[in-house]
Design a protein that fits this description.
The protein has 380 residues and is an alpha/beta fold.
Length: 380
């Protein structure tokens, strides 16, 4: 009995020491932050990759003042461990009604696409806007609808974040921010340079150029196909979700290409993507509709030559680590590539510079910035 009493006093003493070191927790419950990671069900998309990385980081996050809750797509089943709670939304029901969604202290819509459905009750709302591509992709009526939805969300938000200074300027020009600042938090980019690789079945064995992304008009992939007339000894692999109408345009350009050295491959696996980055002669990205341009940073992780358009956020994100096409004309683009590539991979110091540039967009920095924002809103 005496030993039990001594052990009990020792436990009470340790507990008192713990709370003495953390006095701010004595009279405060942990606040719940909900992260809408419902895009996790589409892992081949950019938003799906962000959701996957959020799930991996926050499911391991032990924080004395915050606990996390994931909103998941319908029917999604995965055990994220004891540190997070989860709720599966109902596809059609939660488009119009919020019943069944959790009540939380802070709700974070991690993309503007998540505004198409209801939110649960929350004390604070954080909205992240990745791009305003609807301005070029939609007709005038749909543009009005998108703008109304976003303006309403901005009005409701306690904090608005975006992924580049380019997007911040767009938001401030297009919307009434009501005095709210737009905070720039650069995307995190998962380091895939050491992940396993797998050679795709479509690889011919010839030297090749690589491009990846959803096959949408803003990506300008047809220009790359036309450029390949000037590279008869190289192949071009354009990879990504090709269910969009623009893929028909790209296929038409491929069919008319006299050199027959361009391929539209459709979606690829993560292992195939690593192989293509690692072995490509250059990564080509003539897009005119990016909010961040994640594939260009992924290519830099492998120390590859990167060529980009001089549009949207790409010069900002890539800095001096990519070659900018001053003109998006196939012959002029080919001339820039031919001028840049010879001797490129002998410049070891510059290649290391590319890799270091890519590392600054780490998920560690990205998550730390959001944790700081959550605590600013909930604890101050």
């Amino acid at each position: 009995m005496k030993s039990f009493f001594i052990t009990f006093l020792h436990f009470r003493s340790e507990k008192a020491d713990y709370w003495a070191k953390k006095p701010y927790l004595c009279n405060m419950e942990r606040k719940t932050v909900l992260l809408d990671i419902s895009d996790i069900g589409n892992p081949t998309s950019g938003f799906g990759q962000i959701a996957k990385n959020y799930a991996e980081w926050y499911s391991k996050m032990e924080d004395d003042s915050l606990k996390f809750h994931f909103l998941l797509p319908p029917g999604y089943e995965k055990d994220f461990g004891p540190l997070v709670d989860t709720t599966c939304m109902r596809r059609k029901y939660h488009k119009h009604f919020s019943k069944g969604l959790p009540t939380v202290n802070l709700w974070h819509s991690i993309t503007q696409q998540q505004l198409k459905r209801r939110r649960g009750r929350c004390d604070q709302f954080v909205l992240t806007i990745h791009d305003l591509n609807y301005l070029t992709e939609k007709n005038w009526l749909r543009q009005l609808k998108h703008k109304w939805v976003l303006q309403r969300a901005i009005h409701q938000a306690d904090a608005v974040t975006c992924i580049s200074n380019y997007v911040r300027r767009q938001i401030e020009e297009q919307f009434d921010m009501e005095g709210k600042p737009v905070r720039v938090i650069y995307n995190g980019v998962e380091d895939i340079s050491h992940q396993p690789e797998s050679r795709p079945a479509f690889a011919t064995g010839r030297p090749f150029f690589f491009a990846i992304g959803q096959i949408r008009q803003k990506k300008n992939f047809h220009l790359l196909v036309d450029m390949m007339r000037f590279f008869p000894d190289y192949d071009l692999y354009v990879c990504g979700d090709d269910h969009f109408d623009y893929s028909k345009v790209v296929r038409q350009h491929i069919a008319q290409l006299p050199t027959g050295n361009a391929y539209l491959t459709g979606k690829i696996t993560a292992e195939e993507k690593v192989w293509l980055y690692r072995h490509t002669e250059a990564f080509l990205f003539p897009s005119i509709g990016e909010g961040f341009g994640l594939p260009a940073i992924e290519a830099m992780q492998f120390g590859r030559a990167v060529f980009i358009s001089n549009h949207t956020c790409l010069p900002e994100i890539c800095g001096d680590c990519a070659t900018v096409w001053p003109s998006l004309q196939p012959e002029a683009m080919a001339a820039v590539v031919k001028e840049t590539l010879p001797g490129f991979y002998t410049r070891q110091a510059y290649i290391e510079h590319l890799k270091q540039h890519a590392q600054q967009f780490s998920y560690e920095k990205h998550i730390a910035a959001y944790l700081s924002l959550y605590k600013e809103l909930l604890l101050n």
